[in-house]
Specification:
Blueprint (H helix, E strand, L loop, with lengths): L1 H8 L2 E7 L6 H11 L8 H6 L6 H12 L5 H17 L2 E8 L1 H5 L5 H19 L2 E9 L4 H11 L10 E7 L11 H9 L3 E6 L5 H9 L5 E4 L7 H10 L2 E4 L1 H6 L11 H6 L4 E3 L4 H4 L3 H11 L4 H13 L5 H7 L1
Parallel strand pairs: 1-2, 2-3, 3-4, 4-5, 5-6, 6-7, 7-8
The structure holds hypoxanthine (HPA) and zinc ion.
């Protein structure tokens, strides 16, 4: 239908994409071969067949195994280049990209190498057609507070060099049992260094984790946040404060947050006035980039053309860009 066609063709910002989650099986195998790494999967098809997830943790196990092929700046460059190509094809003109440094430093990859490779691709895209982007460093919440402090300490000396790009911190990985409160101090330190803050909350975790992200980590956006719908007072607070949710419909379906897209809470949250955005999360693993997420949600929830336009406008309003940049994009 023409309406779905319009969705695909309209400019949008993507605010929730883990760059390691854009690593397609073909590139995982190519990088493994380059580095002489033996993967626990016999073939590209066998790897893809393992993408049958029952919850967040079952995905993270495969996701961290895939990221294990990233060793040199060049690998990060290739991965980022491939993502930008897919994003551009979906008319994404601005992207705020998460990366998970702790999963790489654990394997001896220096923070500087990751940033060098990712930045080379982002700067190249910016020069080529103005593709706009920012980077957000995510702490892995299943690791210790001390480990998060180490990751921040490794990034701080590079903030000057990447001031135009590395503008925030986030919180991802296994949510249940790792509440935002565990990272209150490291987030305070990051904010003192001038960084913005976001956190995954209310994906599998309860509404209380969303309150903690707001009140303790003082985040500017909530990643996922789909369980906010369980708490009417929280829904009103999100709507009144215009704190955006970066929702990822295909991710939620693949990780069994909802067993049917028609049960997704984004429509009722949108109706309540919450600033909903639509994003791809880990597109190589969840079966689609940003347009596929818009279309899946619009289809299952019978979103109107006006609602989809609102969601795309929200993506620019919630982006960490200047008013001038925003005016040039919307
Ligand atoms: N949730 C938590 N951690 C993640 C995700 C997610 O959706 N994707 C990559 N790391
Ligand atoms: Zn995510």
């Amino acid at each position: 239908p023409t309406f779905l066609h319009q969705i695909a063709g309209s400019p949008k910002a993507e605010l929730h994409i883990h760059i390691e989650g854009s690593l397609e099986p073909e590139l995982i195998f190519a990088l493994a071969e380059r580095h002489g790494i033996t993967l626990p999967y016999a073939s590209i098809e066998a790897l893809r067949a393992a993408y049958a997830f029952t919850d967040l943790q079952s995905f993270l196990n495969v996701y961290y195994a895939g990221a294990g092929v990233l060793l040199e700046a060049e690998d990060f460059y290739q991965m980022t280049r491939a993502y930008i190509e897919r994003a551009r094809a979906d008319n994404v003109i601005h992207s705020e990209i998460f990366f998970d440094p702790q999963t790489h430093t654990e394997r001896g990859v220096p923070m500087a190498a990751m940033l060098e490779g990712i930045e080379a691709a982002l700067a190249e895209a910016e020069r080529a057609d103005g593709f706009s982007s920012r980077l957000i460093l995510c702490f892995l919440r299943h690791l210790s507070e001390e480990s998060a402090h180490e990751a921040l300490a490794q990034a701080l000396p590079l903030l000057g060099r990447y001031a135009h790009r590395l503008i925030g911190v986030g919180l991802d990985s296994s949510e249940l049992g790792h509440p935002p409160s565990k990272f209150e101090r490291v987030f305070a330190q990051a904010r003192r260094a001038g960084l913005r803050a976001v956190a995954h909350a209310g994906e599998e975790g309860p509404p209380d984790y969303i309150y903690q992200a707001l009140d303790l980590l003082k985040v500017d956006r909530i990643d996922h946040g789909v369980r906010a719908s369980e708490d009417p007072a929280l829904v009103r607070r999100l709507a009144d404060s215009r704190i955006a949710l970066t929702v990822c419909p295909l991710s939620n379906l693949k990780l069994c947050v909802f067993d049917d897209m028609r049960k997704h809470t984004l429509k009722s949250l949108l109706d309540a006035g919450v600033a909903i955005t639509i994003n791809s999360d880990d597109p190589a693993y969840f079966g689609g980039y940003v347009n596929a997420n818009y279309i899946a949600a619009a289809d299952a929830l019978t979103l109107s053309a006006a609602e989809v336009r609102t969601i795309a406008a929200n993506s620019f309003e919630a982006a960490f860009i200047s008013a001038d940049e925003r005016a040039g994009m919307m």
